[in-house]
UniProtKB/TrEMBL annotation:
Protein name (Swiss-Prot/TrEMBL): Kynureninase
Quaternary structure annotation from Swiss-Prot or TrEMBL: Homodimer.
Cofactor(s) for this UniProt protein: pyridoxal 5'-phosphate
Pathway noted in the entry: Amino-acid degradation; L-kynurenine degradation; L-alanine and anthranilate from L-kynurenine: step 1/1; Cofactor biosynthesis; NAD(+) biosynthesis; quinolinate from L-kynurenine: step 2/3
Listed PANTHER family: KYNURENINASE
EC number: 3.7.1.3
Keyword check for Hydrolase: yes
Amino acid sequence: MNDALFDVDRIRALDAADPLREFRNDFHIPIHDGAPQAYFCGNSLGLQPKGARAMVEEVLDKWARDAVEGHFLEPAPWMPYHALVRDALADVVGAQPSEVVAMNTLTANLHLMLVSFYRPTRERPAILMEAGAFPSDRHALESQVRFHGFDPATDLIELQPDEADGTFSMAAIERAIAQHGPRLAAIVWPGVQYRTGQAFDLKEIARLGHAAGAIVGFDLAHAVGNLPVQLHDSDADFAVWCHYKYMNAGPGAVAGCFVHARHAQTTRPRFAGWWGHDQTSRFKMDGHFQATPGADGWQLSNPPILGLAPLRASLDVFARAGMGRLRARSLELTAYLESLIRAKLSDTLQIVTPRESERRGAQLSIRVLQGRGLSGRAAGRDLFEFLATRGVLGDWREPDVIRISPAPLYNTREDILRFATETDRWRTG
């Protein structure tokens, strides 16, 4: 065992010298028994940026002071408010500003994208997705197949994982696309699989899907703000995501959507709304829908200003930190977490997330092999609850996975060492 990995003084010194250490001060860290919690749930709900309150209060003050005129008066008028997050959001996801919009919620956006991009025919009715997807995605895709009069039993193709820990090889994805290609209308795939933490090569999946004649879209709920996704260069047709995980925009935050620039002036059908109407003629009220070019054209209603305000605060932090630097720090933190587990806890914990850095983001998904409890599931739940009582908060996913996600904006090496130390105490206690 490498004792240096567990030397708390050395780890604190590394944290103190970290060039991104100051960004932790931009967030409210929960307190447990009088001390900061080791919070590893950024993949479920990100921490509150300290700037969020001021952004929300700015909106409330404008509402109190200006009422309806707040739509037009500075600072931050409400009419173009969604545009205030556009450029910074495009930088986070690697897109052109016109390709992204913050609107609605993730599953609502997925449905809106499928209205336009899932156009099944008798010859091509099928959607390819991963088996074990997050339930909202499966519900959405199954309902879309049924809505168009097709049978999910044959036309919703769920690819089973082919690797030992429930992950997918690119070879398996390629084989599935080749096998089902003539029947595929669309491929909808995650950027990062929520349970295993596996990250995927979006560009290669899009290339394979397009070569087979299918539309390709991505659910990036666990990828955006976690690792660089380079959406424009990936050549995906569309992508959807939420902003309450790594993007720290608050519970139930307004979601995000990407539509590739080649579809900016599409004639594909869509479910239209007033706010998607071209802004130059929106107020003519002539009853004729003319879509705004780009992702904005899929908006339905004016955006919830109070809901967008915390996203502005979080994006300000991302803009100062930069995704490149955050990814580099994330690689270091997650590698440190893996090293601690393999050095001292490998007889107790099994990492199911891929070892290759390019195949994962911040999250390591962990199964408990042995320890207190009568079964793997009972032991895992027992460890999860023990850690919570010690101020180390991970995330539990049925049936047997603890997800630990060191977020590079606010987690530290000392947080990670606390996880390993408390797990060792549980193991030996």
